[in-house]
Amino acid sequence: MSSTGPLAGVRVIELGGIGPGPHAAMVLADLGADVVRVRRPSGGLRVAAENIDLFHRGKRVVDLDMKSQRQALLDLVAKADVLLDCFRPGTCERL
Fold first, then answer.
1. pLDDT band at 66 (very low <50, low <70, confident <90, very high)
2. Which CATH number does the domain housing residue 33 bear?
């Protein structure tokens, strides 16, 4: 994804989606960062509000089961400059 702005060329991985994390990632995307949002795969339709949520503008989305696809997650994080952990404290450590 090609973008301009002071953060162009910076890759951000956003894990989870609660609290101020999605807003922070949106601001980073607005400033030109390449933001990749990792979300849990869904077996059915997503909630309509999630599909049009303002906080997800300018982000790419990857559906990834962080437990069963752990290596894919680690590969994604290895290429990132910033990791936003939007989970409750201790959740990422358990993954």
1. confident
2. 3.40.50.10540
